[in-house]
Amino acid sequence: MEADRMAIESDVLVIGGGLAGLTSALAAARARAGVDVRLVTYKQSTLQQASGLVDVLGYRPNGDGPLANPFEAIPELPCDHPYQTVGVDTVRTALSLFDDVTDYAGSHTDANALIPTHGGTIKPTARYPQSASAGIASDDGSMLLVGFDSITDFDAPLAADHLTSAGVPFDVRGVTIQFPGDLSADTKVTRYAKLLDTNGDVTVSDNGGSTQRPAREALADRVKIHLADETRVGFPAVLGDTNAATVRAALGASLGAAVFEVPMGPPSLPGLRLEDQLFDAVSDAGGFIESGNPVIDYTDDGSGTVETVIVERNGAEIPMQAEQYVLATGGLVGKGVESTREEVYEPIFGCHIAHDADRYEWFDTAVFGDHSFARFGVDTDTDLRPLDADGNIEFANLRAAGAVLGGYDYAAEKSASGVSIATGYMAGVNAATTIR
After folding, report:
1. Is pLDDT at 415 greater than 90 in this prediction?
2. SS3 letters for the chain?
């Protein structure tokens, strides 16, 4: 495809606005002064679909776990795993960059923290939002989980029962209440957050009448009647956005207990908060972010070098040119890897993705079996440059990062965020330091 207008130029162009892409852009911008870094993403970051927890490695590929120390297990992973490509030291360095630009907890130890989820499971994770800190399962303080009847994704009594059945070292109960103001079941999570952020007045029914009360005080009063001697109270992850720490502190003071958020499914406020922190960090480092426009094609020089990528913007085809490129478009879920009944492919550059010719070999007959499609992705060299079917570098100035990579099952391993951060970091640094 040929574009008929002058190309927009940069030194490093990152394609994809998820955790891998944002880390790559940030790492590139920080790696070398004066490097012009541009990130292009089609849709809103996938972080809004994420829990906000940052996993490095929760389970071995064979299912063993949960792992107490993910860093000790990395050297034992299969040779084609992305962690083996980047190495343990790079994983640590990349996490240090993440720690530097976020307010997450967990950097004080190599050990995984065990965090209760909205389903009542315990998830091993390496980094977690400050809002979840008081809920870690290694604390033996008694816990009250509070659900809202308008947020049906979190059944607090059921989650409490599951945690008890899992053998957590603390007493846990769950209750469901109406959120003050009696919001409807289709209310966006941001509406809850805004009410608590601003402490705006809500209508509270009382003795046959109704009064207007600040949201935080009204919520605390509704919880107090259910609180016994629990030292911790967990809520759905909707406790504010811009003033989240203030909201938790105010509720905690009113309840006389430590308040925490239980990570939820999409849309995820912790994920959106993390997105804001990373977007700000990229901008502060001098990177430029363009969202809402897909990369649909590329041009090359015929000798294995990407010349431009073509971005569709309002029906027009806009060429963007860089010296180095990073592909961080996601996997099968994020549409960075596509499939038909006959093949699996990477849709922008046509990078090779190894797969069996017989599509019935792509999956296991058992629901929780060893599904090969879970490991579909781009194979790379040690510099994260995609390789063709013969093991040759496809493009000398293109690197891949995050879920578009093959060789690992991030859902089973609980390794998605860690791989995205580590490979995004390495791809960004290597791209920036290769600039002539």
Report:
1. yes
2. CCCCCCCEEEEEEEECCCHHHHHHHHHHHHHCCCCCEEEEECCCCHHHHCCCCECCCCCCCCCCCCCCCHHHHHHHCCCCCHHHHHCHHHHHHHHHHHHHHCCCECCCCCCCEEEECCCCCEEEECEECHHHHHHCCCCCCCEEEEEECCCCCCCHHHHHHHHHHCCCCCCEEEEEECCCCCCCCCCCHHHHHHHHHHCCEEEEEECCEEEEEEHHHHHHHHHHCCCCCCCEEEEECCCCCCCHHHHHHHHHHHHCCEEEEECCCCCCHHHHHHHHHHHHHHHHCCCEEEECCCEEEEEECCCCCEEEEEEEECCEEEEEEEEEEEECCCCCCCCCCEECCCCEECCCCCCCECCCCCHHHCCCCCCCCCCHHHHCCECECCCCCEECCCCCECCCCEEECHHHECCCCHHHHCCHHHHHHHHHHHHHHHHHHHCC
